[in-house]
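One record is given unchanged without comment:
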Amino acid sequence: MSRPACALWISVLLLLSGDGLASPFQPGTEPPAPEPPESNLIEDLEVPPQFDGAMPRGELVPHHYPAQRAAKVVEHYLNTRYGSPYRLVHLHQVHKAGLEDLGQAGNKYHLEISLKEVVSDTDLGPCSAEVLFSGEQNQRAPQVQCSCEGLKKLDTKAEEEALFQKLNSSDSLLSGSNIPDSYGHVAPEMKPMWKLGAAAASFIMLNESNEGTLYNMAQVANFTQLETENDLLRFKYHILLHEMITQEILHWKLLATWSPAGGVSVSQTELQPKCHHCETASAIEIPEATPSPTSAS
């Protein structure tokens, strides 16, 4: 055998034997995955598939589920008070969190967070909040106290007044569906209606929140403007909520009212059955909608 041919055979044998020129990874194995960077943004939160009810006490890790869940409740609470077609608060980051056991009274969370306003992308600065999840057997909405000086920066009176006059004086009632669409797109004329739906959905998400839930609004399935009543614009919404712990998509219908002076109110809500093809007629009565005593202004 010639020298070139002999050298070729030696190279082939070395490759087949796994020595010499062989790959540093053995066949059938994968290189180790890099460690993911830590983050305490709500979008990067990994939550367990099941919640066993065991809660840590004292200081909490800001990007872990218990702290993020309590902070998300603060977001819902603020949107019930300040939300509008041109104003929507979003949780940006949890900086510090602690849990206080109050015995039968429940669990109180102490939070240092930062928030952003979605429409203007305004940084609302540092905020402090307390969230109390009741220890009573019958679930009730969490109690929230929040101090956030940045909320005073928000001034959307001109935009809101212009939209109110436009919708109130129009010859036709506005309606829309699938906001955002399957590509994540929201038409410019529908953006105020999406934010109004998110503010209205916050009333449901706040009321339904407990120590085993984490809610986001996924979509406005559809909405319809109703006849104006008592100088309040009225809307019927069908919204989809994403419960991140169970990964369920929950369908709710609601009646909302809005005006620049009165803010957002929700007068009626109705959870839809999971079997949507056998869904019965909605129990919400359109003509007799009355404003809720709780409103966003």
